[in-house]
Amino acid sequence: MLKDRTGLAFFVGLLLAGTAPDARAHPAHAKPVNYPFVVGFERFHSGMDDEAYLAEGGFILLNELNCVACHAPPAVLAEQFSGVVATELDGVASRLAPLELEIFIRNPRFAKRDTTMPSLFAGPDRDLDEVAALRAWLGTLTKEIPAHPLGDIERGRALYHRTGCVACHAPETGYRPPGVPDNAEIEMAGLASVPMNLADLYDLNALVEFLLHPNEHRPSGRMPDFGLSVADASDLAAYLKAGPDLVLPENLTEALTADAPTADTALVAKGRELFLTKQCHACHTMPGNTDAHQAAPSAKSLASLDPAATGGCFSERPVGGPVPFYGLDLLQRRALAAALKRLGERSALDPAREIDWRMKQLNCYACHERAGIGGPETSREVYFGFSGPEAIAMGRDGHLPPALDEAGKRLVRERLEGILFGPTRPVSSRPHLVVPMPVFRKESVAPFPVLFPAADHGGAP
Ligand code: HEC
Ligand code: HEC
Ligand code: HEC
Ligand code: HEC
Fold it and tell me: What are 312-362's pLDDT values in tens digits?
């Protein structure tokens, strides 16, 4: 049985909730977990104490936490463990204020406790001059951001709760989607939600830009593009920035200008160099430089790591030097150790297993069920909006995305390509749906049009 790891936290949260607006009620202020949050592990592999199943979760972590960027996987598994490319840092100084930028470099867990970015400056040997240099350099990475008209908080709030965001992110506790009868109880979401606390820290216009182009901003491809209009993105951003009181802060533009770093050229140059020596480029592409992989990240190979290690990246406290600190919890360490132990037995995945592997990474399961796995959590179904009385009459089919069983039989490869990445997406056969099929990064979904037919016909596509 899959068990909910956050159940207790929610229960405690409920007991503590008083009459004052509870910060946790708002999705961008939801209570974070105290370890790096990886949705595919959290939903599917954290609740069952079966060694093989936990190891499967460990494999997901090896990829999603980008361990494989420094600890090279065996050549035969290189394609499977391609890792993730982290947030594009070009323009970061137009998103985060100098102080927040500094905190993120120094210890990202202070800016976002459940972040998947490990800390490289939390060890006892941390050098704050290096932090300052990195901040000085990242501080020069500004980008022209269009000033969008101020969005409408209430419209954004309604949109957020009907357009599919809540498939992955937290609903606002206590929010009642329209159409839910007054006497019906709104169930708490049981499964953990993808954190989005940075929405609170980003500059408002930068947040709008992010929502319009998530695939460029986050090359990880984990946050899909909903094809939002500028007006819708502005409304959503206003809601996310407004926080639990549903009021926008007064100093919306001051944040980025208050303490603009003066560009000390020597310091900036040092920061630029540190980006490579501190191995930031293991996960981030080097801004302004397309061939910065010259100094390939170096550490022991994945196969040579000791599953029983208690040091290095498995250490409970930051050890410093070149070793990153993730703040892994005990279960994650066990899963990772189990995966390392089974690395030798890991083989190429057949199409059905590869579909499952990728659907967990990209969280397709938040919206789609396949082979009895995933699908929207029952308590979240109310956040998949109905378009009108006709859709309501259709029941669940009127608002929930289709199950993907036999997708490869129903849909030919060209059609699948069209649905997943165009160039022009086919006209929907389900115009009653409010939640769209969002656009994922093409690199992330490119294998699916081949995999679905191969898995569902039991042969070559
Ligand atoms: C930015 C690069 C980097 C990333 C990312 C990284 N590591 Fe490491 N890791 C190191 C370095 C450097 C060491 C020190 C030993 C060495 O040179 O391999 C180390 C050491 C270790 C050790 C101890 C090695 C031993 O045999 O004593 C383990 C275990 C480990 N890492 C596991 C992981 C796991 C699991 C992840 C992902 C959650 C990860 N590492 C992510 C760089 C990295
Ligand atoms: C399929 C799951 C999924 C859906 C649906 C989704 N998101 Fe996300 N979102 C993510 C993931 C995963 C990340 C983190 C991505 C990363 O760091 O690479 C993210 C990040 C974000 C962030 C950045 C904040 C932070 O702390 O990283 C914001 C803001 C955000 N999402 C808003 C939205 C909004 C608004 C919607 C609805 C229009 C939405 N998301 C729908 C998965 C999703
Ligand atoms: C093991 C991979 C990894 C390494 C190494 C790494 N980062 Fe990150 N970084 C990430 C991930 C993943 C995110 C997105 C985190 C999130 O949204 O929760 C991120 C986000 C950031 C952000 C916030 C950007 C934004 O606009 O939201 C900054 C700044 C940053 N990293 C700087 C650095 C610097 C500087 C270094 C080197 C000292 C570094 N990172 C090393 C994975 C990494
Ligand atoms: C936010 C919810 C959401 C997420 C996340 C999502 N989808 Fe979808 N998907 C939909 C909706 C809604 C449709 C139906 C679109 C229509 O018919 O108009 C759909 C349709 C599809 C179809 C066509 C199915 C059919 O029978 O017509 C495929 C294939 C598909 N999605 C694959 C994926 C894959 C692969 C992922 C992960 C990379 C994914 N989807 C993530 C909402 C989602």
Answer: 999 999 999 999 999 999 999 999 999 999 999 999 999 999 999 999 999
8 A C-beta contact, residue 183 and residue 262 = no
Distance from chain centroid for Cα 423: 25
Tell me the pLDDT tens digit for each residue of 187-217: 888 899 999 999 999 999 999 999 999 999 9
Residue burial 80-102, b: 16+ Cβ < 10 Å; e: rest = bbebbbbbbbbbbbbbbbbebbb
3-state class of 439 per DSSP?
strand
**CB of 284 shorter than 6 A to ligand 2:** no
215-223: average pLDDT: 97
Burial grade of 190 (CB within 10 A; 0-12, 13-18, 19 or more):
middle
Alpha-carbon distance of 202 to 278, in angstroms, equals 25
Q: Is the CB–ligand 1 distance for residue 306 below 6 Å?
A: yes
Which ligand is closest in space to the CA of residue 30?
A: 2
297 vs 68, which has greater pLDDT? 68
Q: 216 near 88, Cβ under 8 Å? A: yes
Which of 92, 280, 323, 326 is the best mutation target for the ligand 3 pocket, counting ligand atoms within 8 Å of the beta carbon and taking the most? 280
Name the token pair of 345.
Answer: 């037995």
Q: Residue 373 is encoded by which pair of tokens?
A: 């796995």
Largest pairwise CA distance in the chain: 67
Return d(Cα 239, Cα 156) in angstroms, integer: 5
CA distance linking residue 53 with residue 46, whole number of Å: 9
Q: Which of 397, 403, 398, 401 is nearest to 456 (CA)?
A: 403
Specify the amino acid at residue 68: V
Place 292 in a pLDDT band, splitting at 50, 70 and 90: low
